[in-house]
Amino acid sequence: MESPSAPAHRGRVPWQGLLLVVSLLTFWSPPTTAQLTVASINATEGENVLFLVHSLPKNLIGYIWYRGESSDSNHHIASYGIQSQKITPGPAHSGRETIHPNGSLLLQKVTLKDTGYYTLHALKKDVQTEAATGQLHVHQHVGKPFIRVRNTAVTEQDTMVLTCLTNDTGISIWWFFRDQSLLLTERTKLSRDNSTLIIEPVRREDAGSYQCEVSNSVSASKSDPLRLDVQKNDYTGYPVGTIAGIVIGVLVLVALGTTLGCFMYHRRTRRDSDKRDLTEHRPPASTPGQGPSGASASPGPLPSPRTAGPIYEDLLHPSTDVYCRVSPRADGAS
């Protein structure tokens, strides 16, 4: 006779077996293999750099380094045999490269021309190969900058312009005030590349030492301190805008006065000219006994009182003889 618990026991077996299979598969799954990598480097010109290799595979027989991202034979730097521990130079070997037993590549006294990619091929005993590529950035050591300013002694309310000068490119520029990083305010402005600092208007608290620093990813250099003196502005007169308005007003009045004077001068000159023209073209006065169309002649001198006496007497006492000689009829009538 079958136990009543048997069917229940048979029903639990499949679930327990499934859990066991999942557990075994979890423990039996092979571990994932780490990827071969080459570390990239930032260096300064003239330094020695070492390309470190991570996660090397096992059962290796040697290494091959190439310049670039491919395995071009013309860019073959050198090969290294693990068993022989011998380095064989390639066409791209410059005499400054060395391969270490752990596969890393040493490059001495790097130059700007060394910037680029470097590729490692790790050779296995089963003739399989794993490859990895690293990148080298070579930078120049930045030179010392200096600050250019028009005047180191300014007055309150003036505008101050500081310029950080350097011959380096691909750099970042930072400003320092009294040995601390410069904090920008509403009166301080920087140009887009941070090379120019503008303070407007200048105040007494802006006095002190200023420095600029240039840097790239591998080096930095700071300028000598520049001392700025800010003098107090004792002028209490009109503001600059008011003075400018007064000056402009005076100039306008002077211009108007000059224009009016020129106009009056030309008008008076024209009037005098017109009078002279009328005098020159006026017709001469006619003399007694001559018509108005007679020739122009200056009138004779007026008779003096002495010479005019007989004439007046003749007019007062006319001679009848003269009348008779003129009119014979007068005699016959008498």
Describe it.
With 334 residues, this protein is α+β, with helices and mostly antiparallel strands. The chain has helices at residues 6-28, 240-280, 305-316, 320-326, 329-333, and strands spanning 37-38, 41-44, 49-51, 53-54, 60-67, 76-81, 86-89, 97-99, 105-107, 116-124, 129-139, 146-149, 153-155, 160-165, 172-177, 180-181, 188-190, 196-199, 208-215, 220-222, 226-231. It has a 6-stranded mixed β-sheet with strand order 2-11-10-5-6-7, with no helix packed on it. Strands 13, 15, 16, 19, 20 and 21 form a 6-stranded mixed β-sheet that branches. It has a 4-stranded antiparallel β-sheet with strand order 12-14-18-17, with no helix packed on it. It starts with 5 loop residues before the first helix and ends with a helix.
Shape: elongated
Tally of individual helices: 5
Tell how many strands the DSSP assignment holds.
21
Protein structure class = alpha+beta
Order of helix and strand elements from N to C terminus:
HEEEEEEEEEEEEEEEEEEEEEHHHH
Cα-to-Cα separation, first versus last residue? 222 Å
Major β-sheet, in short?
A: 6 strands, mixed
Report low-confidence residues grouped into runs of 5 or more.
1-31, 286-299, 329-334
Oligomer: single chain
The spatial strand order of the largest sheet comes to 2-11-10-5-6-7
- Radius of gyration, in Å, reads 60 Å
**Average pLDDT for all residues:** 79
The portion of residues assigned to helices is 25-40%
Beta-strand content bin: 25-35%
